[in-house]
TrEMBL record:
This is D-alanyl-D-alanine carboxypeptidase. It comes from the Bacteria. InterPro entries: Beta-lactam/transpept-like, Peptidase_S11, Peptidase_S11_N. The keyword Protease applies. Keywords: Carboxypeptidase, Cell shape, Cell wall biogenesis/degradation, Hydrolase, Membrane, Peptidoglycan synthesis, Protease, Signal, Transmembrane, Transmembrane helix.
Amino acid sequence: MRRCVLFLTTLIVINTIFLSTLSAESNDLPSIESEAAIIMEAESGQILYKKNANSQMYPASLTKIITAIYAIENADLNDMVTISSNASAKNIEGTTVFLEKGEKDRLEKLIKGLLINSGNDAGVAIAEYVSGSEEQFSEDINDYLENVIGVEHTHLKNPHGLFDPEHVTTAEDLAKVTKYAMENETFAEIFGTKEMEWDGKAWDTTLITHHKLLKGEIPYENITGGKTGFVNESGYTLTTTAQNDDLSLIVITLKSNDSNGAYEDTINLLNYGFDHYKTSYIAEDTSFTIEGDNYITPKKLAYTHLLNNEIDKRVTTNGELVIANEDEEIIHSFKLTKMDSKEEKLPNGSDNENIENQDEVQLNYIALGQQLVVPTLILIVIGYFYRKVKKFFI
């Protein structure tokens, strides 16, 4: 009888360990308090998590990301900007870099003051210089958002994000804008700047980013950029970018009740992304053949997928490369370039429609081996105790 009890107890313990292992490996979504949030992979553009990501909300100073990239793309950064009375700090609410009427500053310096210190006065000065007035800037930047970046649910009334009931965006739109902006080297460099010397007419200081993860006040590895925001109506808003060897993440959180909550949510989302996903690539000019037609990839392609997940690549008869996971869910698709049938040779290797990533295949074999270890051990232990128990009863 004692052996039976021991046998059953052992089975229960092993089963508990096995179930715990499965639970730890499951793709549990993070629980966050912010009213809206999103994780986007910057290279593939794939959304890895979202919560109310298409609900219109107030962005507060995350607006300045849009103002900055618009100015970088539409003006000369070396231009000298003369500060108007309207743009002087004494006529601006909220955070400023203490600009004075008549002061002259390079446009690039004003953009840095806008992103690093969240200077609302710098935002007005930039808008007036680039578009002539804040009102015209609002028209110009909304046209830019729709027709250049391609977002549909954002409408801006000012360059800084101070509250206006018609000044709205969504978490997904902000992620798309940030992805677009980070592809610009000048923007990415400024966005990742932790501090800079500021020698203004009325203010001589060191500007330090307000973003606690970026400046290291809250330690987290691989942070590449960040912007904070707050007005009463928006709550706490946060944009964060981070990158490791496998992923480049953009995390947006909107309408957190407090600053700590926004950072906690951001860390949870970053951890979720880095713990569960990786981005793989297909080289430019990789070739595929389907029903006698030859296609190539027009550029290096990126797709993001769950770790330890088998990936299937298929080419449709209309020349679309479809990436699917092991559950046959399409995670990405790309339009391929059809080659002239007179081409003598397909570039870059294979003429097969299924081109596998060797690292990915090895990873899948390793994952399969890991999944078989625990069940195998269970069977061995069961067999051992079965023989013992059988012997006991005989």
